[in-house]
User: What shape does this take?
Amino acid sequence: MITASKSDAVSQDGLLPDLPNGPLSEYRRKASFNWKDMAMFLEDEDIIAFKNKIFSTLESDPLFYRQPGVDLPLEKYRELTFLRCKKIFEYNFLTFEATMEKPQKMLVLINCLGMYDWSLSTKYFLDTQVFGVAIGNTGSERHETILHQTQNMEIFGCLALTELSHGSNTKAIRTTARFDASTKEFILNSPDFEAAKFWVGNMGKTATHAVVYAQLYTSDGRCHGLHSFVVQIRNPKTLLPMPGVMVGDIGRKLGQNGLDNGFAMFHNVRIPYENLLNRTGDISSSGNYTSAYKVLLEIHIYVVIVLLLCMIL
Ligand SMILES: Cc1cc2nc3c(=O)[nH]c(=O)nc-3n(C[C@H](O)[C@H](O)[C@H](O)COP(=O)(O)OP(=O)(O)OC[C@H]3O[C@@H](n4cnc5c(N)ncnc54)[C@H](O)[C@@H]3O)c2cc1C
Assistant: This one.
């Protein structure tokens, strides 16, 4: 049974003010437990205080005011969601250090934003947790500047894996990234419309950069499989597409219409070779491809051969 001391009750009342009287009050009074004790049992004071801070900040900011029952036009809703997302960055509810100290807080933040509007929450999540974390986890120290720009919202990101005809079957993805030894760049191409990146959250209107999954080809024509690359798709100042990038919005969806899901096709789009996210496979400036996995596989095969020989001899 959950019980609280008198001093606990005082601190609870500060963190969890009584709910306003209304039609549900009668039923709440019939509960066999105290909801404040239950809230404190499920979440500690720090988390409840964090939630209160988020909710009271949004409540007192006119940008987050919503008129119940009013459907905004699609473009207006998307614009507002982007401006609100920008404001969430400015409020900086969760620093990197605070997230490291208590990772649960990131989930709490995403949920609180979701309770306000899931379009906003997903928009923020895709940029910071999907785009940003993909770079942090699959890139290396050479991508630190991009990470820093993401954290400051100097750039805004998305993750472009799915293609119009290749969703679950990611192995069949057909976007290509060919290494050009003469310029030390990768050249990205979408062979046809079926290989257009599709559904990508944030890509429709607002993303300036994308983590793009493509088949990596070295200049000798060998394909080394699916790899991810950071690709600038729009100018961060004007939001106009970069040369060779055809990018747009896929339009109204069943839900989350504040979020701009989009498509993109690439026509000879050149990116520096350093934009390859190189945690598991890398290319040198001269175009030599190396992968820790391939080395491990070779060691594994070598060990198996040695063991077999030992058994035979
Ligand atoms: C709202 C939304 C947002 C999205 N955001 C992004 C994004 O930000 N970035 C991104 O890259 N992608 C995004 N996607 C795409 C998403 O990743 C794909 O929709 C998903 O991978 C499924 O691919 P698909 O839609 O092509 O369906 P398919 O792969 O064609 O699958 C269709 C159906 O067939 C089934 N199926 C597929 N393969 C098999 C199999 N081998 N055996 C049995 N059944 C199978 C599936 O379960 C499904 O029911 C988003 C999609 C949605 C709907």
Residues 118-138 form the longest helix (21 residues). The radius of gyration is 25 Å.
